[in-house]
Structure formats: structure tokens, C-alpha cells
Amino acid sequence: MASKSLLWCIALAGLTAPLGAQIPTAEYAARRDALAARIDSGVVIAFGGRTLVTDFSRFFQLGAFHYLTGYDEPDAAFVMVVRGGHQTTTLFVTRLAARTAFYYGQRADTATLARTMAVQARSSSALTAMADSLAGSQLPFYALTDFEDADFAGADSLTRGQQFVKALSARHAGLVVRNAHQLVNQLRARKSDVEIALLRKAAEISSAGHRAVLMMPQPAHEYEMQAVLEATFLRLGGERPAYGSIVGSGSNGTLLHYMLDRGPARPGDLVVIDAATQYEGYAADVTRVIPISGRYTVAQKQLYQLVRDAQAATERNAKPGMPRAASVDSAYDVRARGLAQLGLTESVDASYDPPPPVACAQRHACDQANFWMIHGISHGLGVAVHDYVQSGAAYQVGDAFTIEPGIYISSKMFDVLPDTPRNRAFIAKVRAVVAKYDMTGVRIEDDYVITATGLERISTAPREIAEIEAIMAKRAKR
Q1: Which of 24, 369, 453, 461 could hold 336 in an S-S bridge, CB 3.0 to 4.6 Å?
Q2: Binning pLDDT at 50, 70 and 90, where does residue 56 land?
Q3: 131 is in which domain, residue-wise?
Q4: Alpha-carbon distance 407 to 451, whole Å?
């Protein structure tokens, strides 16, 4: 019965096989040329991801390595020699044993790679000798090590890339090795037309997944919604979820990165659905908050509309040439005023005493309104779900990013506050109102690109209260 309902939702959503752009070989070469121009002279050594240690998952290439090569097989590395701004790149690849290839398929040989990727190609067994030879050239080295994601780079100290560079430095006293990630991140920040097309497709598929959830029969568990989302992503050609799908019903919706998705979905609860797909290496990031029963309560509408108004204010201030700070400030101001009007803070500019290590030097850090907001409103999008935007104070053509204001109300948050007179007064003033909205999280997140014509929202899942309720009123029955 559940399977039949799932197929019904997919059919109703009008899902079709995807047709999308791909990054051409010439663009990968242009990216390496742009990196070479920033270095002028030096050696870049970069490492891709390793073969998985289990058979229970598919390999996906590391973001920086994929960005510069488009080579998506494990156990690869490349060396780029740059002299006077001109580069020559050698890709080092690992062939599979003949028997192993029967299980996983044979990888392209070096001759094929040289012909199709506009690089030189050699066996990975030659990497150490080439690196040792170049270490005597007096050129500085730039390393792109193989951490999984920039969010967790500090924890990745024992990877193959890290250990290779350490060993190389130990063999060649005085070798200068610099971090190349900042240079590559600057290149990744400005999205090309082809990259924007891929991001649009990822956002389109992700939006279809959210629409399918609106039309599914009323769920009893979080994982039923996860199943509809991820089946839709795959049906439309998404490679995988861009991150662990977050489907948090009730109190689980106040946990920013809740990914268990095993809890009950009770009538009357809101469910925070933060889920999107990766398409051809590019990640979308979309969040919606919907009522399990199909209709929002009065209190839920108040918080939801407040967050939606904050998102709209940000959109109005996120245009080419406009300061990024203005969009951040507008989202904060809308929520701060709304929270005060609802009685969730003592006033718009009231403060509280934070727990360590929070410091009050940063603007708004110790405002009572900020206590209910928790996270920032935006991050870049690209080959990582948390990618980079261009440096500078203003929005620029080629930026790709999210706008995601949120409000999270939980009486449990009072437990982290130091026992001070200011905090006691704050809690006493708002406790009764907090009870009205307790255990309610609201986050609305969409994806955007800045083009020559202005701001474009590329995720299109329904987000207005009336629209969501109207669609859910027509959803399938179990």
C-alpha cells in the first residue's frame, strides 16, 4: 500500500527524466589555468578521495579535486607545474586489478584520459618520484589535501594527502608548502553559466521532492516523508541527497541537523524538512516547514509568517551591488520586531547573559531575539552544499547562495543560561509565552543566483501558507 502511494505521488508531481548540462573539458582546463595565473610559478599537488572501505556506499569525489579535474574515480592525485603563469597538469590514477574490475568496472587507462581530459596521465605509482624530483626545483609547493568537506577540515589530519605532504617535507628540508585551498575557493566562488545551469537543475529536482511530500498521504513517521523526498530525487536524476535529509517533526524540528528521521509524525505537529539533491556534482539546499495535519495552527502561522517575512526582506536587499550586510540586517530586524511583538523577548533590543564561550562583542550576539535564532541566514552553494561566495562587501554576478532565516522556540534552551538577575528577569517575563510556542522550529530556505539581470530564486517549492494548505487539502488518502 505504501509503495502504491509513493508511485502515485511521483506520477502526480509530473516527474520526468532529467536533461541537464555538463561541465565541458575546456572549462576544467580553464579553471586550472586560472589557478596557475594566481600562483605564477609553483607546484600544485592535489589528492582525490580514497576507495571506500565498505561496499555499502557509492564513491563521490572530493569537491576541490572534482572542481579542477572532473575525474570522479578514487585513489587519484594530480601535479600541476606552473611557470610564468602557464601550467602543465599530470593526473595520477590507480588501475584496478583484472578480477576487481569484474565487480566494479574497469577505469579508463592513461592514454584515454590524456586524450579526453587534456592532461598528461600516469600511474599513481609514479607520483612520489615526480614529487621528489620537483622538490629540488626551488619552486614553492601548494597542497590541496583530501579533507571531505571544509566544514570538517580541522579534523582531517591523517588523510593520504596530509601524510604524503608531511613525508615529502621530511625528505626535503626547507621545502615550502602552502595551502592552495584558499586560492581554489576563490575560483569556486564565482559560478559559470554551466555551473548555474546545474544548480538550477539540482534546485528544480529538490523542489519537486518537496512538492511530492505535500501531496503524499498523511504520514505517521518521519521516514515516510524521507522516502518520498529521496525517491523523487533519484527519479529525476539526482545523484544522491546533497546532505543527510533532515525530517524533524515536533520537537525534532528544533534540532538544526537532526538526521535520524525515525520519529513519529503526529497530527498537530510541524515538520521541518531540510532536504535536497546533488546533481552532476552540484548541490541544492531547500527547507520547508509543513503541518502534518495539513493546516497550521494560529500559533504556528505566526512564527511561520514571521520567518517568511524575514526571508522576503532579505530577498529585497540581495541584488547585484547591494551590501551583503544589508540583507543580513533586514532579516534580523524583521524577526527581532516580530519576536518582541509576540512577547518572546522583553523588547526589540533587550539583552541576556550568554553561557560561555559566547562573547557579547559581536553585534546582536547577546540580544534576546538572537537567542531564538541560532544560525546565520546564508551560505554559498556549488560542488559542496556549504560552498563559497565571492569576496567583497556586495553581491556580485556569479554568486550562488541560500537565504534561510529561522526561529526555534524551546523551553529547554533556558537550561543553558547562567543564573543571573538579567536572565531570571528574561525567563520570568517570557516563560508563559514560550509555552504557547514550545518545541516549534521554523526554517524557510531557498536557493538563489545573482545574474546580470538581478537576483533569481531557483528553488520553487511552495512556501506561502495558503498555497501549502491548499495543496495538502487535495493530497492522496491512505
Answers
A1: 369
A2: confident
A3: 40-189
A4: 30
